[in-house]
């Protein structure tokens, strides 16, 4: 009888452990178009603090890795200061990341390493019209109504 109770308790603990850890895998979900639109509105708002909060560190900017939080803050502050804006309400082209996506950011070992080490399998690219052309955002997961930013490049052809 005592062994049966121990087995039941053990089974319940294993069930809860599996349940808790499986929940962690869902935190980096695939961003939907509405979340991407929310992000574009946020970027246009100039709220650098909030943009920094949803930016993954390290972040990929063009072909360069931005490794420190203060560099991320400086980057978004400069983007805002330069008057960069996204054309909201325009078509947003969202594509899942594949084995060739890294080429949008550069054909270097640093970019390849970034993609293999830091980019979740659920990541997508969002191609959007902005100041001076089309830009590509590398996104995955979600923080409230915004996707996490893993990379930014552009203008692209």
Outline of the structure:
The chain has 157 residues and is α+β, with helices and mostly antiparallel strands. Helix content is 41%, strand content 27%. It is built from 5 helices and 6 strands, in the order αααββαβαβββ.
Describe this structure in words.
With 157 residues, this protein is of the alpha+beta class. It has helices at residues 2-24, 33-45, 48-53, 69-81, 109-118, and strands at 55-61, 64-66, 93-96, 124-130, 133-143, 146-156. Strand 1 and strand 2 form a beta hairpin.
SSE blueprint and pairings:
Elements: H1 2-24, H2 33-45, H3 48-53, E1 55-61, E2 64-66, H4 69-81, E3 93-96, H5 109-118, E4 124-130, E5 133-143, E6 146-156
Parallel strand pairs: 1-6
Antiparallel strand pairs: 1-2, 3-4, 4-5, 5-6
How many extended strands?
A: 6
Alpha plus pi helix count: 5
Order of helices and strands: HHHEEHEHEEE
How far is the first residue's CA from the last residue's CA? 71 Å
Backbone structural class: alpha+beta
pLDDT average, as an integer? 84
Specify Rg, calculated over alpha carbons. 19 Å
In order across it, which strands form the biggest sheet? 2-1-6-5-4-3
Apparent shape: globular
Share of helix, binned: 40-55%
Largest sheet: 6 strands, mixed
Which regions are unreliable across 5 or more consecutive residues at pLDDT < 50?
Answer: 11-28
Core attributes:
six-stranded mixed beta sheet; 157 residues; 6 strands; globular; 5 helices; alpha+beta; 41% helix
